[in-house]
Amino acid sequence: MSENKTHIEDVNREFYDFRYEDKDSFKVDSGLTPEIVEQISREKNDPDWMREFRLKSLEIFHRTKMPDWGPSIEGLDMANIVTYVRPNAERMNTKWEDVPENIKDTFEKLGIPDAERKSLAGVGAQYDSELVYHNVREEVASKGVVYTDIESALRGEYGDMIRDHFMKLVPPTDHKFAALHGAVWSGGSFVYVPSGVSVEIPLQSYFRLNAPGAGQFEHTLIIVEEGADLHFIEGCSAPKYNVANLHAGCVELFVGKNAKLRYSTIENWSKNMYNLNTKRARVEEGGHIEWVSGSFGSHVSYLYPMSILAGSDSRAEFTGVTFAGQGQNLDTGCKIVHLAPRTTSYVNTRSISKDGGISTFRSSVVVDKRAEDSKAAVSCQSLMVDDISRSDTIPAMEINTSKADIGHEAKIGRIPSDAVFYLMSRGVSEEEARALIVSGFADNVSKELPLEYAVEMNNLIRIEMKGAIG
C-alpha cells in the first residue's frame, strides 16, 4: 500500500496543526481603541458610513457587560488580542496560481482546491484577516449569482445592498461580541442569488486562522431571493498555540419567499480558541432554512444559530453534533422564533463528551401570538463516554398562543456496555467499538453533510475517541 496520505481519514488531528512562520506584512497593535479601529477602517478603504458604524460599535462594546451565564471566558483578554492581521499576500486573487506559496500550501493540505475542482460551484478562502482567493464557476455567474468577498461588494456596485442588510439581523447592540464584530470585522463572503435561480452545486468558504494571539472576524452575508435555492458550506480550522485566539464572526442569511437555503458548517478550531460566533437567518413566506452544524474544536464555544420565521408557512430545520473533549467547554444549540402562522421548526442534535469535556445544549423556541397553527419539535440526545465528563440540556420555550403544537424530548446516557461487549465478541477492539458506537450516534448529522465533510466529521470522531477506554 502506498504511504502517501491522500485522504483526510488517513491522518491524525496533527493534520490541522501545521503552521507557518508568522510573516504577516501588517498587523495592528493588540487591544481595542478608536485609533486601532480607524486604522482597520483605513486599511479596508471603508466608505464613511462604515467607519462611523465601526466606531459606534466600539462604543457599544466598551459599555456592554461580558456574558455571565455560560462557560467562563476569563482566559480571554482583549488587551492581548490582535484584531487585524494582513497576510503577506495581495488582498484577493481569482487565480489560484497567484496566491503566495505558503498560503496556497495551507489550503492545498486542507483539500480546498481539489474540492473546488470536483464538487463546488465556487470557493472563497480566508487566511487570518483577509480573503486571499475567491472564484465562482462561469456557468453559475452567468445566472446572475454573485459570490465575492464582502469588502469588494461593499466598495463596488453592491454597496447599497450591503448597507441595507449589514448587521440588520445581528445589530451591535445584540451582545458584547456582536459589538466587537461590528467594530473590527474583516473579510468574509457576499452571496446574492436572484429570484428563481437554483444553484445546483454548493458554494464554500473556508476560514483559516494562522497567527497566534489573533482574532478572526469575518462577515458572511447571503441573500437568496424569491424561489431561489442555494447550499452554502463553511469550514474553519486553526493550528494549536499556547495563547488564546478568538473567533467572533457573524453570519446573516436572508431567505426570500419560497426560497431555500442550506447552511452547512464543520468548525474544527484548535483547543486554544474562544469561538464566540453569531449566526442568524430571516425566512419569508414559504421559505426554508436548513442548518447542518458540526462543532469539534475550540476551548470555549458560545454558538446558537437563530432562525426568525417571519413569513407564513416558513420552515426551519437545525441538525447539529457537538464533541467536547479534554479542556473543552462547548455551549451550543439554536434559537427559533415563530412570528407568523403555520410556521414549522424541527431541531435534532447530538452532543458527545469525553475526558472531562463539558457539552451544554441550549435551545430557545419562541412562538408569537400571531403564529397560530405552528409546529415546533426539539430532540436532543447526549452521550457521555466516561464518568468524568459532563453533559447538560437547557431547553427554553415561550409559547404565546394555544393554537400551536410544540414538543421537546431529551436523552442523556453513557455508552452501553452490552453494545461494546457485543462488538468485541465479533473481533472488534474495545477502542474501535466505542468509536463505532459514537459514530453511529452522530450519524444523523453526518448523513446530512456533503460526502467530503461527512468523511471529515467521522474521521474527527475516530481521532477524538482514540484512547477512550475506561
| Mean pLDDT value | 81
Poorly predicted sequence stretches spanning 5 or more consecutive residues = 1-21
Q: Strand percentage, roughly? A: 25-35%
* Tally of structural domains: 2
- Shape descriptor reads globular
Number of strands: 25
Structural class: alpha/beta
Residue share in helix = 10-25%
Q: Rounded to an integer, what's the Rg over CA atoms?
A: 22 Å
Distance between the termini: 33 Å
Query: Mind describing the biggest β-sheet?
Result: 13 strands, mixed
Count of runs of 4 or more consecutive helical residues? 12
Polypeptide structure, described:
By secondary structure, the chain is α/β, with parallel strands linked by helices. It folds into 2 domains: 13-303, no CATH class; 416-470, no CATH class. 23% of the residues lie in helices and 35% in strands. It is built from 12 helices and 25 strands. The protein has helices at 34-44, 48-63, 101-109, 112-119, 138-141, 150-155, 159-165, 176-184, 417-425, 430-441, 443-446, 451-465, and strands at residues 26-27, 85-86, 122-127, 130-136, 146-149, 189-193, 203-208, 215-216, 219-224, 229-237, 245-247, 250-255, 260-268, 273-275, 278-283, 288-295, 300-303, 306-309, 315-324, 329-338, 344-353, 358-367, 374-384, 390-399, 404-414. Strands 5, 6, 8, 9, 11, 12, 14, 15, 17, 18, 20, 22 and 24 form a 13-stranded mixed beta sheet that branches. Helix 1 (34-44) runs antiparallel to helix 2, helix 2 packs antiparallel against helix 8 and helix 10 packs across helix 12. The model is unreliable at 1-21 (pLDDT under 50).
